[in-house]
Amino acid sequence: MEGISGDTEATPRPNKRRLVHSDVDPPEQFLSTPSSRSDASSELESHQSGRLSPTKQLAALEDREDPIVYHDFATTKAKVPDDVEKLRMDHLELAALTGAHGGLDVRERSRFGYSWVNDLDKRLKTGRMVSLSEVQRLTAAAITCEEGRSHEGTWNEEVHRVAIRAALTSSTHAKYLDLASAKTASIDPKGLASEALPRRVVDYAMVLMPDEMISRAWKKLRPLPGAGIKSWNHTTTNDLRSNPIASSIETKAPNKSWTDGKAQLAIWTAALHKRLSLLQNPGQGYLQIPAMPLLIAQGHDWHLLIVSRQPQSDDEAGSETIIWQKIDVGSTRNCFAAYKLLAVLHVVADWAYTIWRPWFRELIGWMVP
Q1: 86-100: string of b/e by CB count within 10 Å (b at 16+)?
Q2: Of 77, 186, 203, 301, which residue is 20 to 30 A from 180 by alpha carbon distance?
Q3: What are phi and psi of 5, to 5 degrees?
Q4: pTM, entire model
Q5: E strand or H helix at 262, and its extent?
C-alpha cells in the first residue's frame, strides 16, 4: 500500500515521549439547587468539600422527580425503546463490517478473512476507509501512552481526539459535522442543571455545522435568563454556542474510574435535554427527543451508551431519562480493533446527519417560518 514502507506485519511504535502539558425567551424560571473518583480518597474529598461522591450522585439522580437512571440492555426493569434498539443494532453491525486491508499483523489479518467483516458496500455507505498507515500511527501513539503511563491530557490529544477527527474527516457527511472541544465547558445558565457538576464534564462534542436555515434561526435566538449570551446548547462556551451538539464524548486515562463519567454524562445530558425543550415553539407539549448515542473512551477502550427520554407513565408532564450501557465498540490496541472503532464513529456521524440534524431543524423551524 502506498505510503507504507518496511515491515508491515507489525504496528510501528514511535519513540517514547511525554507531552507537557440564546435563545427564545422562555417563561420558565431557572432555580439552581446545590447538590470524581469512586475510590476511598474520592469519597473523602467529596465529604470534605461538601460534594457528593459519584456513587451518591448517581443515587440522587435516580431520586429526582424526573429521574435519570442507568440500565443494562438485558434489564427486566425497563423495555428497550425501538429507536434505542435500532441504534444499538446499527452500531453492533457496522462495528463488525470493518472492511479488509492488507499489511496487518498476521494475527489481525486472519480475522479479516471472516465473511462478516468484508461487506464493503455496506461499510462504505457511512464513510471511506482510513488509510492503514494512519491507523498504525494511531495505535502506535496509544501504545506509547500506555507504556509511558501518560496522563489524561496526553491520551486526549495524541489518541482520542485523533481517532474522532479521523472518523469525521472520512465520514460521508464530513462537511456537515465538526468536532468541538468541551474541556472548558460548563452548564450555563446553571439553572439548567439540578445538581452540582465537577469542574470538567465532557471532553468533546460532535456538532452540526450550521446551514442556511440554522443560521437564520440563530439571528432570532435570544439568551436564556441568567446566561448573558445566547447558545443553541446548555453551555455558552465559544466553541459550542452556535453549533448544535449532536453527541458528547467523555474521555479518561486507563486508571480513571468509569463511575466518575457516569454521573457527569447523566447531568450533562439532562441539562441538554432541558435546553432543547426550551427551544420548541412556546405552548407545545412534551418534547420527544430521539435516542442519542454517547461515547466514553477509557485509555485504549471505547464504549457506546444510548440515551432515551420518555414521559413517565404516571405523569405526562414529567420525564424519565435512561442511559443504556454499555457496548464495547473497539479500541486502539491493534489495527483490527481500531478499524472497528472508526466504523462505529462513522455510524455516530451518520446518525448525527440523518436523524439528529433533520430533527433539530424541525425543532427550531418555527423561528424562521
Answers
A1: ebbebbeebbebbbb
A2: 301
A3: -130, 165
A4: 0.77
A5: helix 258-277
